[in-house]
Design goal:
heterodimer; A: 212 residues; alpha/beta; 8 helices; 6 strands; B: 344 residues; 5-stranded mixed β-sheet; 4-stranded mixed β-sheet; 13 strands; binds iron/sulfur cluster
């Protein structure tokens, strides 16, 4: 059966971190308080963007709804700056900016998510979006990201992989890894038992063979 | 109205709840009684008729706060929840398992093993500080429960399983009088389980505790996307939360029974805390009901070790963990369902 699947931008983050996590959230639709409250907070927080040339920036759009029919991706961007650019038909060139909280270093997941936003913007505005930026709140630093061919390929492959998970409704089994310790889904994933090294039948046998 | 650790209990007729900013404001007869931040709340339980504004209702649904309503007699009426968690595939797998006799038997067997095993542990714990005169009787009960546990391993159909469960329950309840302590529990007695309506204080407490536990279990199941009405051990009946009843089995003794005996034996509840209707039904008076609710919520904060997961948790979290393990079993990620079992 062909399912009409749509991938959300946030799913890409999850997918690149751990496929099982992506499936738990987007296939099993595990309701995750941390994630919900975190994203809620993000929407309400206004971020100043120091280090940017404000003369170039003529408008800033926040919480922008994005989508690509070609890739069947949709979601919201934290922030898109529209830069004046006479070479485009409309006179604007979108420049996506993703805001990261915390101190961790940039990951592929961040770049892929940003690149997916760029792909959506390209389709929506019919212009090329060659670069964007990731703004790290803790470091107050802006990292430019170029959407080059390898990054675009990785992004499209990730989107395709997510479509497959959604279409087949599959949830990969857990593989216990160091990253599980930093995974907010760990209490719902239970990698220690679902990775398959624990047998419930033995546990049940212990319960019934007690001393009389 | 009582707030006990994340749950707002409404116990006064005609209470009004509305949203102001990010808070729930509780008003009784035009007087503002309390203000609770929404983000501190897990559930709102209306034990008497209350009035919630649509705006508050919307916020509760959106932030995953369960709102449940009980009738004046304590009967569960409804729970308001947003889009169900989990997905339709999990529910289909659950229904298939419920239609499959072999899988149903294995799930029901695990649930009853959990129930009887915890009942036995509870008796063994209680024996330690029971009166000397009762110690041997309680040992005898524990022994019988151990025998029933062994029998459970070999029963080959659901009827036989339910039969063993019935006998185990009878043996277990027969030990209850021996658990009442002379000093504190003066005036209390137990001559078997009765409900609908309960006809003595002990049964009134047990029924009230089980009703709360049932709602906790139903909420935990919906939280992981299972349908609380499609059970394995309990037969489906319209209006019955069969799977919630299934899940509740392993928690009856360690959560509710233990709490009821501790309240009564310590003299925290007295026979005067109950009233008997002319027809014989026994009900908790308002103050006692509040005291019970607070004690119940506090008991849920107590730490406990999960024998299968080998991790610390709380009694309040345990039904959520079990719902999760049940979902994983239904999905085929585990070879059987591991019930929550107290350590021996
Ligand atoms: S706990 Fe580990 S396996 Fe499970 S979702 Fe998180 S990272 Fe993936």
């Amino acid at each position: 059966m062909e399912r009409d699947t749509w991938v959300t931008l946030s799913a890409l983050q999850h997918l690149l971190f751990c496929e099982r996590q992506a499936a738990l959230i987007h296939v099993e639709r595990i309701w995750l308080e941390d994630l919900l409250t975190a994203s809620g907070r993000l929407l309400h927080e206004r971020v100043d963007l120091p280090g940017h040339d404000s003369r170039r920036t003529s408008r800033v759009e926040r919480a922008v709804l994005l989508g690509s029919d070609r890739l069947r991706v949709t979601g919201r961007a934290d922030l898109v700056e529209y830069l004046r650019d006479a070479t485009t038909p409309s006179g604007w060139r979108p420049y996506p900016v993703e805001v990261k909280h915390g101190r961790r270093k940039l990951l592929d997941a961040d770049r892929v998510q940003l690149c997916a936003q760029a792909l959506c913007l390209e389709e929506m505005h019919g212009v090329e979006v060659p670069e964007g930026a990731i703004f790290s709140g803790a470091q107050h630093r802006r990292h430019e990201v170029r959407f080059d061919a390898p990054l675009r390929r990785l992004t499209e492959e990730s989107i395709e992989r997510m479509h497959t998970l959604l279409r087949t409704q599959s949830v990969p089994t857990a593989v216990r890894a160091p990253k599980c310790d930093g995974c907010s889904l760990e209490p719902r994933c239970l990698p220690q038992v679902t990775a398959g090294q624990k047998r419930v039948r033995d546990y049940l046998r212990q319960r019934v063979t007690v001393e009389t | 109205m009582t707030t006990a650790l994340n749950t707002l209990f409404i116990t006064v007729e005609g209470t009004r709840l509305n949203k102001e900013g990010e808070c729930v404001v509780v008003t009784i007869q035009d007087e503002k009684k309390a203000e609770v931040p929404l983000r501190h709340l897990r559930s709102v339980v209306c034990l008497s008729r209350a009035w919630l504004t649509p705006e508050l209702m919307e916020s509760c649904i959106e932030s995953g706060i369960h709102v449940s309503f009980f009738g004046v007699t304590g009967r569960f009426l409804a729970r308001v929840e947003g889009v169900p968690g989990g997905n339709v595939l999990l529910r289909r797998q659950q229904f298939r398992a419920a239609d499959d006799a072999a899988r149903t038997l294995e799930l029901a067997r695990a649930l009853v093993i959990g129930k009887v095993s915890n009942a036995r542990q509870f008796i063994l714990h209680a024996r330690r500080d029971a009166e000397a005169a009762h110690a041997s009787e309680l040992s005898e009960t524990a022994k019988r429960l151990a025998i029933h546990l062994r029998t459970l391993e070999s029963v080959s159909d659901l009827d036989a399983l339910r039969g063993v469960e019935g006998i185990a329950a009878r043996d277990y309840f027969e030990a209850f009088p021996a658990l009442l302590k002379k000093g504190g529990a003066e005036g209390f007695s137990f001559e078997g389980r009765n409900r609908r309506p309960p006809r003595d204080p002990m049964n009134a407490l047990l029924s009230f505790g089980y009703a709360l536990l049932l709602q906790d279990c139903a909420g935990a199941l919906s939280g992981v996307g299972l349908d609380p009405a499609v059970g394995f051990l309990h037969e489906e009946r319209p209006g019955r939360l069969s799977l919630a009843l299934d899940l509740m089995e392993e928690f009856r003794a360690p959560v509710v029974d233990r709490l009821v005996f501790s309240l009564v034996n310590r003299g925290q509840l007295k026979p005067e805390d109950f009233r008997t209707e002319f027809a014989g039904a026994v009900l908790l008076r308002d103050e006692a009901r509040k005291a019970f609710l607070v004690a119940y919520q506090t008991a849920k904060q107590a730490k406990v070790r999960h024998a299968f997961l080998e991790q610390e948790t709380t009694w309040g979290m345990a039904p959520h963990l079990q719902a999760l393990l049940l979902a994983r079993t239904v999905r085929g990620e585990l070879d059987a369902y591991p019930p929550f079992a107290m350590h021996g």
